[in-house]
Amino acid sequence: AVQLPAPVGTLPPYVDAAVPGLPGGTFGDPVSRAPVVFGVSPVVGASTWARLLGLVEVFTFEAVVQAASSGVPVVLVCRSTESSVAACFDAIAASRGQVRIAAVVVVPDAPGAVIRSVQHRLKILGSSHRLVQVPWVKDLRAVGLDRITDEIRLSKPVARAVSKVSTALELGAVGKEKV
Question: Which of 20, 87, 115, 164 could form a disulfide with 40 if both were Cys (CB 3.0 to 4.6 A apart)?
C-alpha cells in the first residue's frame, strides 16, 4: 500500500500551538517543547509510538520543517530494515541541518537479531544521533491504532518498552540508548 501524505490544510499548526496534555509542555513553551514524531517510510510504527508516548505525529517533511522552525525537536521513526534505515539517512540529509533531531527510534521488523548490513548502518547513524532501539513487542506488530486497548497498553511488555523509550527520549539525555 502506498502511504500518501496528509493534505497540508489538515495538519495542526506548529508555530506557538498549544497542545494540552502532552508531556514536557506545549509547542508554545520556549523552555520545554514536546517533540513531534515522523515516520521516515510507510508502516514503521510511527503512529503507534506517537500514540503510546503521547506525542503528535506529523505526516509530511514540510510539517517536520515547520515544527523544527519553531524550535520543536523531531523524533524520526524507522524499522530495522535496509530500506527504512536508508529512508532515515535520506530524511536526515534532506533536513540539511534545519531540523533538530532529538532521536531516531528504531522499531524491530521481526524478533531476533537485526541483519548485519542494517546493524552496520545503525552503528553509523548512532555515531551522530541518539539512537533508541526498541525491543520486539509481539502485541504491537501490525496492530491498528484503534486496536491499542488499555489491555495492550498496560501489558508488561508494552508498558516496559514505553517506559524505556520515554526515558531514552528525554531531551536532556546524552548519547545513544538501546532499550
Answer: 87
